[in-house]
Write a structure and sequence with these properties.
The structure holds two protein chains of two kinds. Chain A is α/β, with parallel strands linked by helices. Chain A has three domains: 4-241, P-loop containing nucleotide triphosphate hydrolases (Rossmann fold), CATH 3.40.50; 270-344 and 449-634, NAD(P)-binding Rossmann-like Domain (Rossmann fold, 3-Layer(aba) Sandwich), CATH 3.40.50; 359-432, no CATH class. Chain A is 39% helix and 21% strand. Chain A has 22 helices and 24 strands. Chain A has a seven-stranded mixed sheet with strand order 15-14-20-21-22-19-23. A five-stranded mixed sheet of chain A has the order 5-6-3-7-8, with helices on both faces. In chain A, α5 (123-137) packs across α6 (152-163) and α13 (374-388) runs antiparallel to α14 (396-404). The longest helix of chain A has 31 residues, at 233-263. Chain B is an all-alpha fold. Chain B has one domain (13-261). The longest helix of chain B has 32 residues, at 230-261. The chains are: A alpha/beta, B mainly alpha. Chain B: InterPro entries: ABC2_TM, ABC2_TM_bact-type, ABC_2_transport. Chain B: It is a multi-pass membrane protein. Chain B: Keywords: Capsule biogenesis/degradation, Cell membrane, Membrane, Sugar transport, Transmembrane, Transmembrane helix, Transport. Chain B: It is found in: Cell membrane.
Chain lengths: 635, 262
């Protein structure tokens, strides 16, 4: 005796297409005379083998028309194979659809007996298990009403209850559980696992891959009657899903191309700005089959994360960008578009001729005061704060002093902050600094996030990969383009929100920085990617040495030269490159007013740092763009 | 032999299904009607009255107690017509079910003929009522009527299997058979006495119309009150089994192809 419960061996099932259409004598006679009665065969199943052991749960997956139901019918004995053999050991619940054979006119009570006897049970057997069935299906109240008045969920419940009343050796379940509610589905799963434990073998068909994964331990994937794959459920489902996603994308792209030919170049979205927000949004939309056009004012894509390769070094043209996030989804997303190194940002602060580690941590404190333990450092800071005796800080200086004490403030905060704002710390409001994180461990990692790194080969590739296959126009000003063309349905605006409204409520203010980039003919200029200059006498706030963003590349191929950027804080005037929004009361209010205007623009989405007047880290921008795209697609 | 034993075993396994199907047919037939089962009796009674009014003047001289003569033939004919018509549609009508369950397909045909037989036995009540009303004599031979019913049941099953099979492949058979049953009604001495036909017609009907065998036997038992002639009696059984063999053979040969055509 074979050890398999179901043993389908090279099963082929053939339908004769031409014959199927002839079912009256006249047609038959005509075809006979015309000699058109030839075979036009169609193989619904082509050489499929399946061996199922006792107690296994097999999922059959595949698109519509792939032969799943045909295969089940063959196993149930409804269809005879044209070639090959099918052996089933033990009794099979020979019903490939739950509740098949329910008669709408009969009551549930009558149908239970009817269905039970259809499954080959005797009347006595059904008498014995009647209550059990009614209880499982939970239809006691409606037992004597005709089943045509039942909802599809109730019918499925009843069908399932009848089919599983007696542990069959082989149970076939075809697309049945999708109609029931959560509760019932749970109940069914429990019953199925009970049966499986009791040695029942399950053959399960569903389009819902999630359910197949949950219920089954094995799966077979049919495609156009042929077996594409069979084995462990996870493997087969993964492969199937991958294929489905691929086909889906292809189909959408084809549809899009067709629409394009029909209607000319009409875009669903006009994305203004090719920064991270715009690029992620456009990518997501394209993946969903929408068509986007990306406009970029600058001659290159990428917004401020743009990096440019100069003499083999990727120069961060708009300031240092270090990717860090705690959001694993964002981290995985961004890694799809570029490989990342394991760069960790550990800046150095230079105060006159002294060097300190940043952020403020035990290395910093140790260097400042020669302390060794966190307790000593804390005591020192507390002592300094107590000496000052500041109760209500009136300005930034007093605020900072009350938080970190004299030494840290004087050497590491004061000069840097004054250069940043172009004003004396005494003249700056206290609220700019709410807290100053002090770290009492020997850890120079500037960020606290789980994941950190720099794309190997620069940031620009991320944008280029995101925008792959998407129409992009660089050197194009949206406001001029808008006047000329109307070939878009919706706008995603990532530029300055005040500019969009032609500054009619006034200018929003920004902090801006200026870079002086130069090539230096020595192997290393400062030996670190970022060095902050914290005394006020040095005009720049920091120096970036770009090669150290990719230290692994430098280690593998040392260069004789280096490229550095000196970063100067500059007061912003309209027309300058905006960098950081100023979140003071005045600007926040103005932004709120603009936001109100934006709310009235029905077909415009404002996004990103400038569109939302908000300081965004790169990971937050990606998350925001993904969320917005998702929201858009739901509409 | 083991194949035969297996068949019997399967049939036994599904005996309750046949019961359920038969009781469904009967229940559904009269559900939502006020008189319910009484219609099984009332219906032939009403038809009999109509036919009596129309035809009694025509044949009154030849036949005493025309209503009983008519009804005794009519009850059998109705059974033939109804059961074979229903059996013909039993496979195609259950297409949805047959595509989804692996139940022996003949069960449905068998159940249809059976439920019609039960219906006929019930409508025997109409015959009894008419006999009472018209003051006809009751003979002990009346009690032998199940023999005729059984013969006809076997015959109708055989014919039903054949028609069911044909109907799967050629739906036209429904219309053709409709014409055939009408002709059959007039070629069987039900509303008229056989003697009124020309000699050669009488011969053809006597020899080759299966219905003649059953109607004749039934009338002998119920109307005339004598035992049927041997020729008619044995002929009835032989015809029934020949029909059954033909029907079953055709059905068995083609049943695996049904699924492709329904």
């Amino acid at each position: 005796m074979s050890k398999y419960v179901v043993d389908a061996d090279h099963v082929t099932i053939r339908f004769n297409l031409s014959n199927e259409k002839i079912n009256n004598l006249k047609e038959y006679a005509i075809k006979l005379v015309k000699k058109e009665l030839m075979f036009q065969e169609f193989l619904a199943l082509d050489d499929v083998s399946l061996k199922v052991k006792k107690g296994e749960a097999w999922g059959l997956i595949g698109v519509n028309g792939s032969g799943k139901s045909t295969f089940l019918k063959a196993i149930a004995g409804i269809l005879k194979p044209y070639k090959g053999t099918i052996k089933v050991r033990g009794n099979i619940a020979p019903m490939i659809e739950l509740g098949a054979g329910f008669d709408g006119e009969l009551t549930a009570r009558e149908n239970i007996y009817m269905n039970g006897t259809l499954l080959g049970h005797s009347k006595e057997f059904m008498d014995e298990h009647f209550d059990e069935i009614v209880e499982f299906a939970n239809i006691k109240k409606f037992l004597d009403s005709p089943i045509k008045n039942y909802s599809s969920g109730m019918k499925a419940r009843l069908g399932f209850a009848v089919a599983t009343v007696d542990c069959p050796d082989v149970l076939i379940v075809d697309e049945a559980l999708e109609v029931g509610d959560m509760n019932f589905r749970k109940k069914c799963r429990e019953r199925m696992s009970e049966l499986l434990e009791g040695g029942t073998t399950l053959l399960f068909v569903s389009h819902n891959i999630k359910t197949v994964r949950e219920v089954c331990d094995h799966a077979i994937w049919l495609d156009k009657g042929k077996m594409k794959m069979s084995g462990e459920v996870a493997e087969v489902c993964d492969a199937y899903q991958e294929e489905q996603d691929r086909l889906d994308l292809e189909r959408r792209q084809k549809k899009r191309e067709k629409n394009f030919k029909k209607k000319g170049k009409v875009y669903d979205y006009l994305v203004v700005g090719s920064g991270l927000y715009g690029a992620v949004f456009a990518r997501e939309m394209e993946n969903a089959g929408k068509r986007c056009l990306v406009l970029e004012k600058r001659p290159h894509v990428g917004g401020n994360i743009y990096t440019e390769e100069t003499d083999g070094i990727h120069v961060h043209k708009y300031g240092a960008h270090i990717f860090h996030t705690s959001d694993v989804a964002v981290w995985n997303y961004v890694k799809n578009y570029a490989p990342f190194n394991n760069f960790i940002n550990s800046p150095i602060a230079v105060y006159k001729d002294e060097l300190y580690n940043l952020p403020f941590n035990m290395n910093t404190f140790s260097k400042l005061w020669g302390v060794r333990t966190p307790a000593e450092a804390k005591a020192k800071i507390a002592e300094q704060i107590a000496d000052l005796n500041i109760t209500e800080p009136q300005n930034l200086e007093e605020q900072a002093l009350s938080l970190v004490g004299t030494d840290v403030y004087e050497k590491l905060i004061k000069g840097y902050t004054e250069k940043q704002w172009g004003r004396d710390c005494k003249d700056l409001p206290a609220f700019i600094i709410k807290r100053l994180p002090l770290r009492f461990t020997y850890n120079n990692n500037y960020f606290n996030d789980k994941y950190q790194g720099i794309p190997v080969g620069g940031y620009t590739q991320i944008i280029e990969n995101l925008l792959d296959g998407i129409d992009v126009k660089t050197n194009t000003d949206f406001f001029k383009y808008k006047k000329k063309y109307k070939n878009f349905k919706k706008v995603v605006f990532t530029g300055m929100i005040d500019e969009y409204f032609d500054y009619k409520l006034g200018h929003l203010e920004y902090r801006t920085v200026r870079f002086e980039t130069e090539r230096v003919e020595e192997e290393s200029y400062q030996g670190n990617a970022v060095v902050n200059y914290t005394d006020r006498e040095v005009p720049y706030t920091r120096i970036i040495e770009h090669k150290y963003f990719e230290p692994e590349k430098e280690a593998a191929q040392p260069k004789e030269y280096t490229i550095i950027s000196k970063e100067y804080s500059t007061e912003w005037k309209p027309g300058m490159e905006p960098y950081y929004p100023v979140n003071d009361e005045k600007n926040s209010k103005l932004y709120e007013a603009y936001q109100e205007l934006a709310g009235k623009e029905k077909n415009v989405i404002f996004g990103g740092r400038l569109g939302q007047y908000k300081y965004y880290d790169m990971d937050k921008v990606i998350a925001a763009a993904l969320a917005e795209a998702k929201k858009e697609l739901k509409k | 032999m083991s194949a035969f034993r297996y068949r019997v075993k399967v049939l036994y396994q599904y005996k309750d299904l046949i019961k359920e199907l038969v009781s469904r047919d009967l229940k559904l037939k009269y559900r939502r009607s006020f008189l319910g089962y009484i219609w099984s009796v009332l219906n032939p009674l009403l038809i009999m009255m109509v036919l009596t009014v129309v035809f009694s003047t025509m044949f009154n001289k030849n036949i005493d107690n025309y209503p009983v003569y008519l009804l005794s033939g009519r009850v059998l004919y109705d059974f033939l017509k109804l059961s074979t018509n229903n059996a013909m549609k039993s496979v195609t009508g259950n297409a949805a079910l047959l595509k989804k369950t692996n139940v022996p397909k003949y069960i449905f045909t068998l159940a249809k003929v059976t439920s019609c037989m039960v219906d006929m036995v019930l409508s025997m009540g109409a015959l009894v009522i008419v006999m009472l009303v018209t003051g006809a004599k009751f003979y002990w031979t009346f009690l032998l009527f199940p023999v005729v019913v059984l013969q006809m049941y076997i015959f109708c099953c055989g014919l039903g299997f054949l028609l069911a099979t044909l109907n799967v492949f050629f739906r036209d058979i429904v219309y053709i058979y409709n014409a055939i049953t009408t002709a059959w009604l007039y070629l069987t001495p039900i509303i008229y006495p056989l003697e009124r036909l020309p000699e050669n017609m009488q011969f053809l009907i006597r020899e080759f119309n299966p219905m003649y065998y059953y109607v004749q036997q039934f009338r002998d038992l119920v109307y005339t009150g004598c035992l049927p002639q041997a020729r008619v009696f044995y002929g009835g059984w032989i015809i029934a089994f020949i029909m059954l063999v033909i029907g079953v053979t055709v059905f068995q040969r083609k049943k695996d192809k049904f699924i492709l055509y329904i």
